[in-house]
Amino acid sequence: MDTCLRPYGLGSTQWYVLWKLANNGPTVQRDFLDLLQVEKATLSQVIGALVQKGFVEQTPASEDQRQRMLTITPAGHRLWKELPDPIELILKHSFDGVGEADMATVVRVLQGATKRLTYRLTQGSK
């Protein structure tokens, strides 16, 4: 996944932050902790790199000045339009030639596995 992003100086986590901001608009930084399942320090590094590159703007959130609102910048929008979609590339290469019925089975199995893993990570360890 990172291979197709390397020429742009991005990693997969940075790509996902840009994807979220480009598709859903400004987002409070803390919302990315759950979305990305990363530690606060890791998220700060990812966001800091995007801010430093000029792709994301970080401002105080209007409802809570202690929180940071993230917004994609015009430079970030221009980059976003150029970026390949690594998920699309992975799916294309991984499932090329898989029939529709088999693909439905793959999706069902992976959704079930993801649901069980997510439950275990969020609830099962308590």
Helix content estimate: 55-70%
How many separate domains make up the residues?
2
Q: What is the helix/strand order?
A: HHEHHEEHHH
Radius of gyration: 17 Å
Sum up the overall morphology in one term.
globular
CATH topology of the largest domain: Arc Repressor Mutant, subunit A
Low-confidence stretches: none
| Fraction of residues in β-strands | 5-15%
CATH top level of the largest domain is Mainly Alpha
InterPro entries: HTH_MarR-typ (IPR000835), MarR/SlyA-like (IPR039422), Tscrpt_reg_MarR-type_CS (IPR023187), WH-like_DNA-bd_sf (IPR036388), WH_DNA-bd_sf (IPR036390)
Protein name: MarR family transcriptional regulator
Keywords: DNA-binding, Transcription, Transcription regulation
Domain HTH marR-type: 1-115
Task: Report on this structure.
Keywords: DNA-binding, Transcription, Transcription regulation. Strands 1-3-2 form a 3-stranded antiparallel beta sheet. By secondary structure, the protein is mainly alpha-helical. Strand 2 and strand 3 form a beta hairpin. It has 7 helices and 3 strands. The longest helix is centred in the C-terminal third of the chain and has 25 residues, at 100-124. The chain has helices spanning 2-5, 12-24, 31-36, 40-52, 74-82, 86-95, 100-124, and strands at 27-28, 56-60, 68-72. It has 2 domains: 2-95, Orthogonal Bundle (Arc Repressor Mutant, subunit A); 98-126.
